[in-house]
Here is the input.
Amino acid sequence: MNELELKYGCNPNQKPSRIFMEDGSELPIKVLNGKPGYINFLDAFNGWQLVKELKKATGLPAATSFKHVSPAGAAVGLPLSDIEAKIYWVEDLGELTPLASAYARARGADRMSSFGDFISLSDPCDACTARIIKREVSDGVIAPGYSEEALEILKGKKNGNYNVIQIDEAYVPAEIERKQVYGITFEQGRNELVINDELMSNVVTDAKDIPESAKIDLAIALITLKYTQSNSVCYVKGGQAIGIGAGQQSRIHCTRLAGSKADNWFLRQSPKVLNLPFREDIRRADRDNTIDLYIGEDYMDVLADGAWEKLFTEKPEVFTREEKRAWLDQMTDVSLGSDAFFPFGDNIERAHRSGVKYIAQPGGSVRDDNVIETCNKYGIAMCFTGIRLFHH
Here is the structure.
């Protein structure tokens, strides 16, 4: 199959729409179920590249949860703690396979943003992973293969219309890539930069030690940023992205956005949130929305009289600003990547409040001295990679 007709482009008024191979070769994908659309394929192909690189860099199965051409989460297949299994809503599934753990992490980091995601998996989808996917609101999945049981589970999702794509993992794209904007063709070499430890060798701060676990997390951050709409910043801890700030015009806004998502990820692990007395008839998505409001500034939306009764069996106490700060002060050893240099030390100040201890960024700002000085103030180890990772 050389081309595939799509229902429409980014929007219903954009017709005709298709994907095809300009050189006349076969498409490297097969649609096993459903009818994926234009944005689905943009998410699928970007996500596939990301997980393929994560698997190559770490040796572990990888997964990503994409929304609107940027990852909401990305992770490798490390075992979940009991608390992580609970906040990702998978504690009832028992022991997970490494691939299922990777997707649970990728989906669970920012469940609000992952709602209605497109999933990319580095390895053939197994039944355990398919069972997690089946219970979530999602548009589709791309993987190099599917077990028979996994495929049957996925085909039963969305009344039989769930999008399931198989990609040829041996496919190698052309070295030159092109796209059109306003009828004008753009051409560039593909970004084939390999993310490895060499990029983290130029440590410019007083703190020099970046342990192997942090190097893995920094690699995850940089690979994630390679496929995230710029400007972008990524916080990573324990093998998973916990906060991604994408598509912001100002770097400090990226850092704040991603930092607030990382904070929410950690606040969800606090006893005050874990012990919220939800009614049994409240669905997971509604619980996610409620938790997001409860830990934010608009907590009275769910705690006001007449509101809390619809969600909880008893009225929870307010999670005060002081209590939240005390809990967040326990978050440590977080890694942070940036797709371009930090222009000012205010980015480091914000990163420090979310427990950042290791940073990888290109360097090259006229204010590098200020950024390094701020890192030194907090004992943060920062390396200059010398490489920018813009993606558009």
Summary: The chain is about 35% helix and 20% strand.
